[in-house]
Amino acid sequence: MKFSKTYKRYWPYIKGYKFQFFMVLVGILLTVTATALTAHIMKPLMDDMFISKKSEMLYIIPSLLILIYVFKSIGRYLQAIFNTYIGLHIISILREELLSKMIYMDMKYLHTNRSGELISRITNDVARIQYFVSTMMPELVRESLTVVALVGYVIYLNPLLAFWALIAIPAAVLPLLQITKRLKRLAHRSQEKNADIVSRLTDIFNNSEAIKANSTELFELNRFHEVNETFFRINMKSSYTSELVSPISEIIAAIGLAAVIFVGGHYVYEGSMTVGEFTAFLTAVGLVFQPLKGVSNILGRIQDAQAASERVFQVLDQPNEIIDGTKLLNESVEQITYENVVLKFNNHYALKNINFTIVKGQTIALVGQSGGGKSSFINVLLRFFDPQSGQILINGHNIQDYTQHSLRSQIALVSQRVYIFHDTLAANVAYGQEIDEAKVKNALRMADALDFAESLAEGINTVMQEFGTNLSGGQRQRIAIARAIYKNSSVLVLDEATSALDNETEQKIQDALERFSKNKITILIAHRLSTIQNADQILVFKQGEIIASGSHNELLVTSQEYQRLSRTLSENH
Length: 573
What we know:
The protein has 573 residues and is α/β, with parallel strands linked by helices. 66% of the residues lie in helices and 11% in strands.
């Protein structure tokens, strides 16, 4: 992505800060003017104060010098304050847009991209972009204007001498262009390796129990060392390259100054130029190379920001495979129909020709071996994935016509994996909704969780630790069930929702759920026979297909696969 294209991508963000950029421009003009005046004051300093020895200059020159630097300081302060405001505000917007994009992406995208990689885009890449939007562009404008102003001034003083002074500038550009190309490649690799570091750390901290249980601390440290060492080497290569900019610029600047001293000295000896004019010229030339060096450094560092920008915009431009519908599902779900639904992953059938209808008040159970298609049956209903062919109808309408938000608002899911957020217990139960304490307690009571909730230090207002580590597995599962009850949707999906509970607690919750779900559609995936045997209909899955369906008693007679599964389910009881 070229700089011009990068700038165009940022323009929608930048254009909202007209006043702030105006103040930055005021600061730049004050700084540039003060810098040019610093060179100009050298002429009266040498000719009038030192050579002609005009006494009033002893007061005028120091006063002017102080005034010049007051203007320069004000200019730099204005730039710094308003640049920081622009940069931080744009970065906060970009972070939110990135998270919004990622969180609304389809499950395939979220599963195939490592969490560390996604976190790195939001944190590391966006932080690198802050330099681009808040510092680099204003600095580039300021330093470029300073170069133009000082070049104009030296040409005004002596066009011929200016030619000898400025002939070195084009020579500085060519090697810098080669350096910036290499820096961009290294910046991409550096940012990828930084994402690897975040991913490794995420894996380590998310799996700390497994690491402790297997005594693999040293193994994980060694794996982290490899990634960290690679990151170090790439950054050192980048440093070796970027640090060439400054010495190359300084050597070329020294050559230019040497040419000025040599040629200008002759002019002074010949009398065609005063000492003051030569000093002002020499000062201006010296000042030209300082911002020129700044521009060179910016052009070197810009590659890092551009590489980060490309990674960020790659995410923002990523198309979503799940296209949102426009119709709102405001009424309760009366009927769900699967019509020839086919779902494939890498030519493997997760679901194959699924045809089934569920109506309000019905409880169906899904059984089968692991990988048989039970979870996929739920995933397509929630639109975590869309089938390659066939359709799912809710109340006679294709679910792809509904907005995902309104569809999922009608479905309460308790999955095998329990999600506990770093928030109060009440907020976890009422997740995403307004907290009604009476309603929270009622949901906890139905989930047989109120006693333990009220025994906590601050009751239902106790803050849960990350991943719910201050709770037992059974407690976490009961909170997840309470969350589904609190949501009170018209479809209840229980994916092995009571697997961590003892038989007595499970029976209590089953009785409560049975009363709670009388006028709802309930879909069960269970590991115990007691959970499913009272279901209105049981679907037997094998390799993505429904190979048998019926009540528990019917299937015991008609399906050998169910007979085998029921023995396994009985053993789990």
